[in-house]
Amino acid sequence: MATRQREISISEFFSKNRHLLGFDNPQKALLTAVKEAVDNSLDACEDAGILPTLKIEIRQLEDDRFRIAVEDNGPGIVKSQIPKIFGKLLYGSKFHTLKQARGQQGIGISAAGMYGLLTTGKSIAVTSRTGAGKPAHYYEIQIDTRKNAPQIITDKVVDWEAEHGTRVEIELIGTYKKGRHSVDDYVRQTAIANPHCEIFYTPPDAAEPFHLQRGSEMLPAEPKEIKPHPYGVELGVLIRMMKESSSRQLSAALQKDFSRVSSRVAAEICHAAGLRPSANPHTIVVHEAEQLFKAINSVKIMSPTTNCLSPIGEEQILSGLKKEIDASFYTAITRAPAVYRGNPFQVEVGLAYGGSLKSEELIDLLRFANRVPLQYQQSGCAMTKAVLGIDWRNYGLSQSKGALPTGPVVLFVHIASVWVPFTSESKEAVAAYPDIMRELRLALQECGRKLSMHVRAHRRAVDEQKKRSYIEKYIPHIGIALREILGLSDQAEKDLVVTLKDVLERSRSREQFTD
Predict the structure, then answer these.
(1) SS3 state of residue 427
(2) Is domain 10-212 classified as CATH 3.30.565.10?
(3) pLDDT, average across residues 353-366
């Protein structure tokens, strides 16, 4: 039995459990591959301060065989990093940083390439250039799942018209469908949540790309990296941080390695833990670390700074909704930042109502995390649970028990965080932490109140119009009755009818001016 034991690489594990990464059926696999490439492109452009322009192409080679390509105008990738980024799982620059980003684990795009290799035997193809006058490097890369290491099949310099950027191509087995949970729907939602992005999208059944125009020329504010907050650190992590600290004194280590810990707060923590501020953090033993951990949670520490977040913002949410959805009423709410387990997060809600939206169907719920659309596992997501927990009948919508409300509504829900608590590695649903649920509920209620005001005003206007139409209908009959009662001439009757209509019109004008 001992001779059969061997180490399992992360690539080998996920190659046998690809459903954990979102590749559990052909339709979902096609969407996930496009999503991972788009996420990387948007992050790269925003990090470099470039307004993103993306080209997304899907070519159908056979009934179930597709070749996807995603090209961006970002800063490109230096030659030495290309094989590792696309041919090694858990390789990236964002896992150890606390700031808002779409990708964090270093799994997505390399996993998409691995899925393509497993299903078609074809390598992931990457073309990248870092600037005008620099060479464009073309790679074909496969991932060695036994070693979790890249295998370079092709490495050459090619002619490429783009001055800078990256193009990724993957051949894979998939299924292309329209409607919900489709690539088409994902691209549309990406355009809504990222109005600063211009997209040229070519689906398999189109000869020319669809142009989703930029709705804003303003890049999102760049999030700043922060240090871990003491409240979000667990005991085992605290022990490791103390061992690895570059400081020689416990008080200095607390101030240097954590956010929001001043010299006064550090002294309070040391006093509460019964440890000397001058103690060497490297020599702290487990029971002392436990005392320190309890002391941290007993001392009042300011919430972490929130410049690590880059919310979409109410104005940009409205811009995205108006650009892609034909409605008669729009509203958006951006809540103040909050904290769960020491991690800052921010909730945003947008709503579009009326217009060409259908009133007899369930509302269209769009879920986003760090500007990325969440397409699957809707019922297990905190956002869905929060929407279901609101009584939307109070806000003018129909709702059956335990179901989403019915009405001509598109509901946009977004959470921005330095570490979104996804329920799985496929990043399709957000965990229902109490702090997150509370913020979601408050934002939805505020948005609902604005909707209610609009719905009531609209219904009053409709009722008023009905009443006026009745009056206008019967004004000629009133004229006839008055002529008979008062013995008026035909001309006097006509003048009276004109006068009554004039009074009605002036009454309507006064009410509109007051409103």
Answers:
(1) coil
(2) yes
(3) 86
Residue 513 has what pLDDT? 47
Phi-psi region at 495: left, alpha or beta (left = phi > 0; alpha = psi -120 to 50): alpha
Q: Which CATH architecture has domain 230-298?
A: Orthogonal Bundle (1.10)
Backbone angles phi, psi at 197, to 5 degrees: -100, 135
Residues 18, 44: Cα–Cα separation, whole Å? 26
Matching CATH number, 314-445, of 3.30.230.10, 3.40.47.10, 3.40.250.10, 3.30.390.10:
3.30.230.10
For the stretch 154-197, pLDDT in tens is 999 999 999 999 999 999 999 998 888 889 999 999 999 999 99
Q: From CA 7, how far away is CA 16, in angstroms rounded? A: 15
One-character DSSP codes across 160-198: -S-SSEEEEEEEEE-----STTSHHHHHHHHHHH-TT-E
Among 49-58, 320-329, 497-506, which is the least confidently predicted range? 497-506
CA distance 66 to 275: 62
Measure CA of the first residue to CA of the last residue in the chain; give whole Å: 83
Beta-carbon contacts of 479 under 8 Å, excluding residues fewer than 6 positions away, are: 493, 494, 496, 497, 500
Q: What single-letter DSSP state applies at residue 245?
A: -
Q: Which of 240, 273, 247, 207 is nearest to 96 (CA)?
A: 240
Mean pLDDT score, 383-395: 91
Q: What is the pLDDT averaged over residues 219-239?
A: 85
Please say if the pLDDT value at position 11 is more than 70: no
Q: By CB neighbour count within 10 A (0-12 exposed, 13-18 middle, 19+ buried), where does 509 fall?
A: exposed
Query: What mean pLDDT is predicted for residues 344-348?
Result: 92
Strand ranges for 262-337 from DSSP E: 329-334
For residues 456-484, give the mean pLDDT: 70
Rg (CA), the chain: 30
Domain extents in the chain: 10-212, 230-298, 314-445, 456-514
Mean per-residue pLDDT, 361-384: 90
From CA 180, how far away is CA 71, in angstroms rounded?
A: 24
Cβ of 394: how many Cβ atoms within 10 Å? 12
